[in-house]
Write a structure and sequence with these properties.
The complex is a heterodimer of chains A (325) and B (294). Chain A has 325 residues and is of the alpha+beta class. Chain A contains four helices and 20 strands. The longest helix of chain A has 22 residues, at 302-323. The radius of gyration of chain A is 20 Å and the shape is elongated. The two termini of chain A are 25 Å apart. Chain B is built from eight helices and twelve strands. The radius of gyration of chain B is 20 Å and the shape is globular. Classes of the chains: A alpha+beta (325), B alpha+beta (294).
Chain lengths: 325, 294
């Protein structure tokens, strides 16, 4: 029960629901960046929804299956081929031992999730199979996949779901222009009034440095901080604070130039003022952004953030109802 | 020194961020330690991460299990109950050997010189000059002379931020690089703002680089005795004393790291903030005696 990696792709990692309880020691949550698509892939093949999958970023790998398997691909529109023949995404596909799965160029979104019935069976580290690359723990040897790796796959006990499809209304939306909702706060009051407005007025574009640690945005007007006495120990730039913890999803603007939204492999703290935090319901949206995609940040209050979360939770309930049988 | 009331802010719908003071101080750090310890003891349902930092802390929670407003009320009530917090801490003092002015951080500095405030100096020369030391040796002596408090663990896995235990006027302060480097050797001794650090893994970094330690502090394989309990060595509240070593001592330590026999000098100690503030140098002398006594 294994998968042999023939080509690794750009950044293919083992990810699950994440690693909880070690953020205070600098070990972040990790886990699939688009948790909705990750759960959909697992539920499709009949895994528990938090089983380990492969997160495929932008450029897909080439994988040889060493056993008969059932797989499903969700998230980004990353056209897949089995032994050279196109196969659909968001559907459970039967794979024969010896078959090779490969990918064409990415069409929409940024991250695909490949679930295999039985789950990717790497050892758990601190309660999770997720790869945390900076700390070199979890996943396959603590790193992204390389050609020649052989990934263990767990035994699958349940009934076969070959051919089962994800209903259209439950597929992840993959727009090229997005609105990302933000709860202003933290050090937002350090910005000038004009910059506090321009951040939400401008259309930002995703920069080339966009990875599991964080997404950097460009092309908005630079942000300015109110002049203030430098806090002792903070450092000399107006965007510097005494090094503090960073919420996952928080937005920092080093030097006022390029906002960075931290994601699930976040650095857990540092010395840059955060001006707000992306709401939990929109973190999956950020995960599917490609470099150069247009993003509008939209200010919301806590009531709106919580109602967006309720909607997102309901969508997960719908997903389970559609697939848990 | 009494602190102003803390400032509370939501970090989205899953975090509460609490700034205990703008300025770094041991008082702010102690207040954060006592509050975060109290939060942990309450075992509040829905709270998933409790992260003390230098002069702030944050809590991550699941708003499906506890309403954000309700949790914030609980945190505020804990602050009021504790006042300025416990002033004593049972902790450990640890000796960390350092090869200052080492070839690896010096080589890395040269690769990123255009990102530095003063491309014609080394980080040590620059740090010595702007802190008023006559030369690099005097600067290194000051860096290694007094102990440091681990006031936060994070950024990346197991990286300690350290606050020098001397009067504010004597604290070493340096700006971070103008633009962060994309590379820092593993186990570099760094400094930015008023904080020292040890880079637990190789990677990006913006702190000035003064030296390197042979002692691993993040070890997923847990091969050394002092990380047998957990792969991350440092905890907030640890006290660190640097010990300058030469190249042959460094090389000998690395051989021991390789064969798994390397260990650190660690002693239990009770730290009293009030006694420290009364006379920092006498108190540091006592701490050092605890470290090197039997």
């Amino acid at each position: 029960m294994a998968i042999k990696v023939l080509q690794a792709g750009l950044a293919t990692t083992v990810q699950d629901a994440g690693r909880i309880g070690y953020y205070h020691l600098g070990i972040p949550l990790s886990g699939a960046l688009d948790q909705y698509s990750f759960r959909a892939a697992n539920l499709l093949v009949g895994n528990s929804e938090d089983a380990a999958t492969l997160e495929i970023t932008m450029l897909g790998p080439k994988l040889e299956f060493m056993h008969d398997a059932a797989i499903a691909l969700t998230g980004a529109n990353l056209p897949a081929k089995l032994d050279g023949v196109a196969i659909p995404g968001n559907q459970v596909i039967a794979v024969k031992a010896g078959s090779v799965l490969s990918f064409d160029f990415l069409k929409d979104g940024a991250r695909g999730y490949l679930a295999v019935a039985g789950g990717i069976d790497v050892p758990e580290v601190l309660g999770s199979r997720s790869t945390y690359t900076l700390g070199a723990i979890g996943g396959f040897c603590g790193r992204k996949l390389q050609a020649g790796d052989v990934l263990p796959v767990g035994a699958f006990q349940g009934p076969s779901h070959i051919g089962r499809k994800l209903p259209d209304h439950l597929k992840q939306a993959l727009p090229k222009q997005v609105q990302v909702r933000v709860l202003p706060g933290l050090y937002f009051h350090w910005l000038t009034q004009a910059s506090g407005k321009s951040f939400f007025e401008d259309t930002w574009r995703v920069g080339p440095e966009a990875d599991r640690i964080g997404y950097r945005f460009k092309h908005g007007r630079p942000l300015e901080f109110e002049p203030r006495e430098r806090p002792f120990g903070a450092g000399s730039d107006p965007s510097n604070i005494v090094d503090a913890g960073y919420p996952i999803g928080s937005i920092q603007v080093p030097g006022g130039l390029e906002p960075i939204v931290l994601h699930r492999d976040a650095v857990s703290g540092g010395g840059y003022a955060m001006i707000g935090t992306v709401i939990s319901a929109d973190m999956d949206v950020v995960a599917q952004l490609q470099p150069n995609f247009q993003t509008q940040f939209v200010a919301v209050d806590m009531a709106q953030a919580l109602s967006a979360r309720v909607k997102r939770n309901q969508r997960l309930v719908d997903l389970r109802q559609a697939l848990l049988n | 020194m009494s602190l102003p009331p803390a400032r509370y802010s939501f970090g989205g719908d899953e975090h509460i961020f609490v700034e205990l003071n703008h300025d770094m101080s041991l008082e702010a750090f102690f207040k954060g330690m006592s509050i975060t310890n109290a939060i942990a003891q309450r075992k509040i349902a829905g709270v998933t991460e409790i992260c003390p930092a230098n002069a702030s802390y944050q809590v991550r929670f699941d708003p499906d299990l506890i309403a954000p407003d309700k949790l914030m009320e609980i945190l505020k009530s804990i602050e009021i109950e504790l006042g300025d917090g416990a002033l004593e801490l049972n902790t450990r003092i640890i000796e960390i050997p350092v090869l200052y002015n080492d070839p690896w951080t010096n080589e890395t500095q040269q690769r990123f010189r255009e990102r530095h405030q003063d491309p014609t100096s080394t980080d040590l020369e620059y740090g010595a000059r702007i802190n008023g030391y006559a030369n690099v040796d005097a600067f290194i002596a000051a860096h290694a002379a007094s102990p440091w408090f681990v006031s936060m663990v994070g950024f990346v896995a197991g990286l300690p931020f350290m606050f020098q235990m001397v009067e504010r006027a004597k604290q070493i302060q340096v700006p971070k690089y103008l633009r962060p480097r994309t590379d820092t050797p593993k186990l570099t001794i760094g400094h930015g703002g008023c904080f020292g650090c040890i880079y637990s893994v190789r990677g990006a970094g913006g702190y000035q680089m003064f030296g390197i330690t042979p002692a691993p502090i993040f070890d997923p394989q847990q091969s050394l005795p002092y990380v047998k309990d957990f792969m991350v060595f440092f905890r907030p509240g640890d006290i660190v004393k640097f010990k300058p070593i030469n190249r042959s001592e460094y090389d000998a330590a690395l051989v021991k790291v390789q064969d798994g026999s390397f260990d650190l000098r660690i002693r239990e100690v009770k730290f009293s903030l009030q006694d420290f503030i009364k006379d920092p140098s006498a108190y540091n002398q006592q701490l050092t005696e605890t470290l090197y006594g039997n």
